[in-house]
């Protein structure tokens, strides 16, 4: 599946245009809305691959894609907020404990321990959130209902399966390899850093599409999603 995921973004004659659009949107991510569009596209990748479609989707119906991406962003944000809140609470408790101790060494050590424990707990929960989010987005992509992203009755058996764990690690490896390649460019002064800045969004987009190919395909295999017939797009009803 790893080699298939790398080739997947190129399984369409217009793949260069798609990657160029995705990369430009990445460059414009500081405007926020382009980020929603990219997330919406990745949700399309999940929908297509879970139904067995071997061709990547295209950028069209921009309004629908943006709204879809906004919902996906909200789902990821909810999962990400929990570790952030816990880290903030423990950090605040550590600072207040040190302040309440009037600067004593014991209070300072205790405050540091509380803050460290908070960071460790937040790290573990953050890693768990990163593990859950692709499955949550997949369930949302399949049903179209935001509540499905938090349906742990459906998510639990997927998350506990070795196949999903392997797919998640493979997707992570694809993203990490892309990040590593860009980091190597950053080592080269000026020219390499400029190349990394300009190429980064395009490489990252390509890697994200490949990674979510793995997630979507695995979700379809684990969740018994109905495959599409040749010439039929995911979500369409067969002709009667």
TrEMBL record:
Key word Mitochondrion present in the record? no
Q: Does the keyword Hydrolase apply?
A: no
Give TM regions: 20-43, 73-95, 107-133, 165-188, 194-215
Which InterPro entries does the UniProt record give? DUF4013
Keywords assigned = Membrane, Transmembrane, Transmembrane helix
- Pfam families this protein is in? DUF4013 (PF13197)
> In terms of domain of life, where is this protein from?
Archaea
Q: What is this protein called?
A: DUF4013 domain-containing protein
Can you name the source organism?
Haloferax elongans ATCC BAA-1513
């Amino acid at each position: 599946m790893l080699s298939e995921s790398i080739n997947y973004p190129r399984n369409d004659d217009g793949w260069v245009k798609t990657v160029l659009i995705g990369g430009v949107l990445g460059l414009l991510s500081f405007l926020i809305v382009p980020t929603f569009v990219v997330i919406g596209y990745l949700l399309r990748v999940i929908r297509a691959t879970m139904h067995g479609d071997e061709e990547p989707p295209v950028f069209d119906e921009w309004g629908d894609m943006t709204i879809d991406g906004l919902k996906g962003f909200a789902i990821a944000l909810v999962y990400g907020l929990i570790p952030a809140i816990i880290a903030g609470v423990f950090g605040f408790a550590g600072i207040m404990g040190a302040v309440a101790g009037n600067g004593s060494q014991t209070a300072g050590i205790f405050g540091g321990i509380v803050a460290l424990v908070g960071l460790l707990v937040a790290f573990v929960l953050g890693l768990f959130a990163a593990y859950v989010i692709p499955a949550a987005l997949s369930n949302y992509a399949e049903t179209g209902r935001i509540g499905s992203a938090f349906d742990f009755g459906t998510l639990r058996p997927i998350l506990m399966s070795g196949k999903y764990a392997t797919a998640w690690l493979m997707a992570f490896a694809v993203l990490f390899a892309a990040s590593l390649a860009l980091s190597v460019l950053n080592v080269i002064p000026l020219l390499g850093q400029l190349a990394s800045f300009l190429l980064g969004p395009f490489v990252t987009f390509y890697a994200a599409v490949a990674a979510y190919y793995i997630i979507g395909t695995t979700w379809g295999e684990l969740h018994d999603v109905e495959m599409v017939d040749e010439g039929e797009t995911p979500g369409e009803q067969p002709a009667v």
